[in-house]
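Annex B. Sample input.
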Amino acid sequence: MKKILLLTFAVMMLASVSFAAWNPTPLEITVQDRVQYAFDGTSVDIPVDVAGKPARAWLWINTKLDEADKPVELINGYLGWHYVNGIDTTVYISGAKEFTVGTAQKFTWDGKGSENTSKEYQGTIETTGVNVEPGTYDYYVYAYDDKNARENVCNFLAISYYWHPQYIRVGEWNDDGTPRANPYLWGNLGAMYPDMHASKDGDGNVTGPAEGWNAYGPPIFTAVKFALGNDPDDYNSMETTFMPGFSQTAGEELCPSPIVFDPTDEMTFYCLHDLVTQKKGAMFKWTWVAGGDALVADDWGGWDDLPIKTESNRGFDEYDVGLTTDGEYMYLASPGRVADVKWDKFYVVSWGGEEVSNQMLDPFYAPDSKNKNGYVNRIFSAIDYPGLAVLGGEQHCMMLCVHTDRIADAEDSYVAWYNTNGDFFLDAGWDAEVTDPAELWECNQGGFKTPNMGRRDEQWFDSNGVVVHHPDFQGLMSIVVYTQDGSGVCYAKFADDTVSMTTADGAKKGSGQRCDNGSMFDGMYVGFVLFEGSGYGGNRQNINWIASDSGTGIITDQEVAVEEAGQAAFSVAAAYPNPANPTTTISFTLAEAGQVSVDIYNVAGQKVDTLVDSEMSVGSHSVVWNASQFSAGVYFYTVKSGNFSKTMKVTLLK
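Annex B, continued. Sample output.
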């Protein structure tokens, strides 16, 4: 009897410490594809449906011009700090609006433009009082969950390391281009973090444990994959491989860049290895060996075939070269820092192992705007949207967006937009009466003249081209949002941010990343909540998630053509309720009678259920999906009628 009781107790104890999966409820923003507006001085409503989470949201409106009509080398914005070249521009930005979960909510626009007048520190968006010209415009709604605390994702990796380029990113897509149902946190551990991870020598032998909270952390120079949805504490669910022969040894300052994975083969990854003090590096190709040493390709890149010149001006402790990709090419961002050396180089490298081109990013060089240490550019980093890269640096007052395809083709006109002094946002030296360059360019001062000095971490695009930047020392503000032309939209605060250190020894909030592939894991990935005494790098200790989403459509004065009338009458509504648990109603309107199908697909694109496959009459219809037999996650429903089809997303909770 005693043995049975002991066995029962042991089973109960095992159950009490079993790993629990992380299953978030995403925020989903649904807007109309087309909003009709006469541009006649009246107001127009822009409907917004919100599912999953409550949201704080903004609306903005961009031009939608033919290529020949887009502005060339236009200087505008606060104090002329904003420059756009050959792209559509933002004509209106709303104030923030709070939305609950539900349908039939809206923004209302009076047809007038707006501008940032920057009359106070956190910006002032005011109407211009001038009606926007009639025509067709793109509109965007960006939203994030400002009501709920961040959710814990992983407790042994960090999304941000001080001011360095991003080493951990989100792997959203399978090798065949379909969205990954459980995206990866993947990347590598750089040479700068021996306080966080175990150390190995060049032969892969562990030479010392890490200190403190994460002594079980993987060694530096290790590449990692951790599938989202796993228990945040399940260290054994992480896959690793080690890059041998490239670690730091005595007298050698050999550092890895962030790695990127081959978009068609996740078992292949690439890395720049940099001899920092010698100011030279080389690209290498690796094959993933789970739990062992990765294999370096001897027929791709290397010191002889793919050398990359770098320009570190402070040595090993300031290693900063970033590596990223948009799937077309790989991009290396190599910064310089001293005023007498012009060096802000952007390299384009092909998957075949060739340097396609390189470009000196002239707008970054500001020799007359040194910080207190004499540096003009501490670091910059890039995150890519197909054909574009946005770059910005900590203690540097430039946000720069470039056309990566134009750099690849060695075109001179490669700048899409830039903001000097952040176009007010992300700069504390915004006072119009300040004329001294060292004062005006305050975000490059390397000190804390004001409590909101505006140090910068990394930034990213979402799938609609929205730019989100992660700042430091901006009071309680957690992110800065920009439109597609670089116009500042807002500062925004996470619900659980309560402390912002403002001294040199204070804590940095650090960078973030996003997932935006239509899975239940869509949103922002950030560090943990700062607290008094958490230290300069306190945000490094784990990875957390906050829900966010965006939607887009057009506003137009163009009447629907006769041949389009049928298509305009065909519509599909957002499923309600969404998330489903376990049932939801799908409503749609048919323009004409005929064969109709309503099918359900999983995130891998596989059809998992058919709700309708029959003849239906003109008018409004609805069908209920009972998903009790399906597992929780994100699904898509497609309604087809004749030549018309529309697919929308629904989340299933259990």
